Amino acid sequence: MGQTDLGYKELFSNKEMVKDLLTGFVREDWIGELDFSKMDRVSGTYVSDDLRERHDDMIWKIGFRDRWLYVYILLEFQSTVDRWMGVRLLTYIGLLYQDLIKTGAIGEKDLLPPVLPLVIYSGKRRWNAPVSLEKLFPQTPSGLDRYQPSLRYFLMDEGRYDDSRLQMPRNLVAALIRMENSRSHQDLRLV
Asked: Which ranges of the sequence are coiled-coil (predicted)?
């Protein structure tokens, strides 16, 4: 695991960083319904049915609306482009659901909690891998397409944000990206 991944894991183990990430960068109406006072980090280590151990980078559960419904956010930190990221995330989400079922966190009559798969990319090249699993399949015969797995992930490609987009007062994630993208000591002072 690279130093960037370790640094990001440390930073995003802080609730305020995750809150700033979601409120500052994920532009979805439902973000306003999250209850950040009900927020816990969840283990990202699972043993699959064939006894292989898998590690996610980071998972948080957050209260959603007025119920004990949780949104699981998978943070996958990347410094290189991975064309197969959608497949990796599909595997992680499946293992997360298996674990919730095995441990009794989801009862027999419960529904699965929604998941926001979120990739934070800090590499130099621009991310060019598909953010939708459907883009990894060839055109399938009519009728067969509805049986293919479906997944879309939120990509935060740090290099795509310009300074005007990062001018968020008191947003730790915006400040982090501005620091990482700064080219001079003067740029750093402005952060």
From this structure: none
For the chain, the domain total comes to 1
Q: Is 171 within the bounds of a domain? A: no
β-strand pairing of 34-42 with 45-47? unpaired
Strands (E) across the chain are located at 34-42, 45-47, 53-55, 58-64, 69-78, 115-121, 154-157
Count of Cβ atoms closer than 10 Å to residue 136 Cβ? 16
Question: Residue 160 domain-assigned?
Answer: yes
Other Cβ atoms less than 10 A from the Cβ of 189: the count is 8
Within 10 A of 58 (CB to CB), how many other CB atoms are there? 20
The answer for residues whose C-beta is within 8 angstroms of residue 158's C-beta and 6 or more apart is 120, 121, 122, 177, 180, 181
Beta strand pairing status for 34-42 and 58-64? antiparallel
pLDDT of residue 56: 58
pLDDT one-digit tens code per residue, 129-156:
999 999 999 998 999 989 999 999 999 9
Residue with tokens 């797995």: 149
